[in-house]
Acetoin utilization protein AcuC (Streptomyces litchfieldiae), 389 residues
Amino acid sequence: MSGEARLMWDESVTRYNFGPGHPMDPVRLTLTMRLIEAFGLDKHIDIVAAPAAGDSTLGLVHRVDYIAAVRHASDSPWAADQRFGLGTPDTPAFEDMHDVSALIAGQSVAGADDIWRGTAHHAVNFAGGLHHAMAGAASGFCVYNDASLGIARLLELGAERVVYIDTDVHHGDGVQDSFWDDPRVLTISLHEHPRTLFPGTGRPEEAGGEQAPGSAVNIALPAGTSDAEWLRALHAVVPELLAEFRPQALVSQHGADTHFEDPLAHLTLSLDAQRVAAESCHTWAHEHANGRWLALGGGGYAVVDVVPRIWTHLVALAAHAPIDPETETPETWREIVYALTRQQGPPRMTDGRAPRWRDWHAGYDPANAVDQAIRATREAVYPSHGLLA
């Protein structure tokens, strides 16, 4: 291996398990790693298991009393303190919750170290992207916010400008909250509109604190948005902001729950559009951030058909060994899928679409709800960056 890219992986991250029936089924992680291996990507990328994040590292983002509450809930799940968002239906407590959550966080922090110090250009932690966790509370299946911690480590190491791009169907509220008043971090979230989906935040007018106007960018799209319009929105906002902000590192979150098969949300993207977004983030990292790219997983609850394929594409792109979407999934992997889930695995690495989108500068349609959303975002944040909306 050349050291170009690293996959942060420890099999123990699959212990992040909220129990039977919970949407966040850890089999999605196992199936992703097995698909990566079945394609031989482990020969194109360094696989590294980093240590768990310690309390001082977790403290870059999380309060001391919250970390203590997570430890207590890990030892006594039945006594979890719901004031900290623990022991709720969304985020039930489980034994060793602190240890495995800190392990996932440690992978993202180590990936941030690697890209900043030049050990690797790209680092991927598909077990991460737990973007809802707040400084003092668990939320939305997320205990420790590894995305915020990775960004915080970059700042600690001397980064002056970091961009975070969140393509999960849900608003990246925890990361936005972490850096709301920090002009060194530009958070960009493309998500389903909060009026129809958790967490109920992420409107365009949420644009950063008094010390950092324009540092929070929210593109809130209507339910039902599909490939062409979603990609139009992404490319109508992100490239211009990147060119103006000039980030030294790019952190991206690739929740797979924008997919039309996902049971928890209402966007209708294909795997192919999700892959295009990952490819764009890779390109933007090289164009604007000297190749420094930390790529994370996130949501995604179609755990057989969707999650393993999109995150395998993500790893392949980071490894500079992209997989042709028309490629068949390996038979050996489909056998593993059936053995673990009693479901049939998807036959190809595509949904059969070839997404194309209309460039924003080709014209604005005032009657189109997605164009209205794009315009609202540009008007909310572009003036703070000296850009024309």
